[in-house]
Amino acid sequence: MTLCKYLSTDAVVIIAIIILLGLFSIQQFGTGKVSFLFAPILALWFFSLGSIGLYNLITHDISVLRAVNPAYIYYFFRRNSSSAWSSLGGCVLCITGAEAMFADLGHFSVRAIQVAFSCVVFPCLLLAYMGQAAYLVKSPESAPRIFYDSVPGALFWPVFVIATLAAMIASQGMISATFSCVKQSMALGCFPRLKIVHTSERYMGQVYIPAVNWFLMLMCVLIVAIFQSTDDIANAYGIAEVGVMVVTTALVTLVMLLIWQTNLFLVICFPLIFGSVELMYLCAVLSKIKQGAWLPLVFTSFFLCVMYTWNYGSVLKFRSEVREKISKDFLLELGSTLGTVRVPGIGLLYSELVHGIPSIFGQFLLSLPAVHSTIVFVCIKYVPVPAVPQDERFIFRRVCPKDYHMFQCVARYGYKEPRKEDSSTFEQLLVQSLEVFLRREAEDIALEGNLIDVDLDSVSVLSVDRRRPDNDLRTPLIQWRQQCGGSVTSASEEGGIMVQPLITTIGLLEEEEEEDPELEYELSALREAMDGGCTHLLAHGDVRARKDSWFFKKLVVNYFYAFLRRNCDAWEANVSVPHANTLQAGITYMV
Q: Span of the secretion signal (predicted)?
């Protein structure tokens, strides 16, 4: 079978593979680099569809317009019975893609999409399909290649180029959606960690995942080379689209019931109306399983197993880390020396726990003859902003009393910040932020210890009339300030006076006064530790099923999940831990 009289099947397959290679090769540059061409090409594409369809209607058979009468659906099924039901699986391709417009709700408003669909997409597609039907009335033998055969000969190559570009744009949308879905699955802990590249500083959703991109390219090339027919690919696409519709209807029903708390009658009507139509189409496309519809089912089963295995193993690992983390009471029993020798230096222990002391720290205490005089538990998080200011990057909290010199730190990075950071720069910024934290902590303690209570009942604040002279207005406020340390600000528009009370302390530290001895001691200890150097302590946690576990659990945890962890993007690669002065330790959790 040939696509048209100009190209053979082999030529079409080769051209399709070349286009696919080019399409996936430009993904690394980001959607924003080429998206400015999308609107003109799609507008020209829909204009071509509508114009060619109208031309075929006028030229071949205008009576096809009677197809808008829904009674012909009944006549069609009565006349063709089982074959009509089988053809319904192919007709589903006429409606697929319409719901994809609403995937752009994050970029366009609902009104814009409604206007575009009602005024452009739907009329042009309707004219195109009616025009092809009119052409088939006169040339029924062109059914396998109706689209290109119905194009006037002089317009074949321009329409071929426009159709190819439109198909690439549609494929671009599917590829970008795949990147977005994988990224969100990773954020939810339902997909193995992969390298994510953000291609835009303005839009966080524009991402590029190299591993997914090359996997999609390989699969698409293999499918095109093996099938070599749009029929099988169309059947695979049809069952995928109808499956998405059924799943969406089920999830929206749950949202209506549990989140929106919609009226129960409407909740029941929604799946009955929409779900019945979708299930009818689903039953029709399931008859095409042997003709290519098996492909999305295989891919779905594969990725479902991968996502379930990763989520199951990750949940077991996280619960084990939380359950076995070291308690603060245990460290207090060990004393400030932590049961070993404290030597000058800073130990940066990286962990995925935001709160609490990871159990791997106990492994370091048992394995090392001495530990650093200052310990910082570092947890690196990526936040949905392009970049985090340096003065807001680190958030500290004290873990134990001051003589322990142990802190917990959350380091925040934006999605566009470089992942590779110089070791000395990272350490310098962290120590500077820790010093600022110690100073602010000392100031807060000093303020809390020296606050005095002010008897506000003894202070009379008079109601103010804007017609009184300014000196009369300020008199009671000056008295109030002398009693409780208030400061006078500007008058409000309504005629009242806004008073901002000052925090009054006894013996506030003057600029020339010496610093707190405890603060000076901690700062000197921190500087001494910095002179001793920084050591990056990496923790590798693993999970293994107990011997008395079920066979299925052993298979999933010990083999499948372990395989995914070995081959996914390493955690320390994501956080860009410097390699100089690095110690690694591992711990196995029995689940």
A: none
Distance CA 561, CA 121 (A): 45
Compare 59 and 92 and report the one with higher pLDDT: 59
Phi-psi region at 53: left, alpha or beta (left = phi > 0; alpha = psi -120 to 50): alpha
**Tens digits of per-residue pLDDT, 101-125?**
555 555 567 787 788 888 888 899 8
Which phi and psi angles does 462 have, rounded to 5°? -80, 150
In degrees, rounded to 5, the angle at the alpha carbon of residue 10 between the alpha carbons of residues 5 and 11 is 60
253's CB contacts (< 8 A; 6+ apart) are 267, 270, 271, 275
115 CB neighbour count, 10 Å cutoff: 12
Is the model more confident about 86 or about 523? 523
Beta pairing partners, 380: 411
Q: Could you tell me the residue ranges of all domains in the chain? A: 9-228, 323-450+535-549+570-590, 456-501
Put the strands of the sheet holding 370-383 in their side by side order.
394-398, 406-414, 370-383, 341-350, 534-544, 582-590
The DSSP bridge pattern shows strands 370-383 and 341-350 to be parallel
Question: Which pLDDT tens digit goes with each residue over 188-222?
Answer: 888 998 888 877 777 666 788 899 999 999 999 99
Residue holding tokens 């589903």? Answer: 92
More confident position, 498 or 311: 311
Sign of the dihedral defined by the CA atoms of residues 128, 134, 135, 136, in that order: positive
Q: Coil, helix or strand for 339?
A: coil
Which residues neighbour 506 within 8 Å (Cβ) at sequence distance 6 or greater? Answer: 450, 452
Residue 32: what pLDDT?
66
| pTM given for the model | 0.72
> Closest Cα partner for 316 from 581, 78, 554?
554
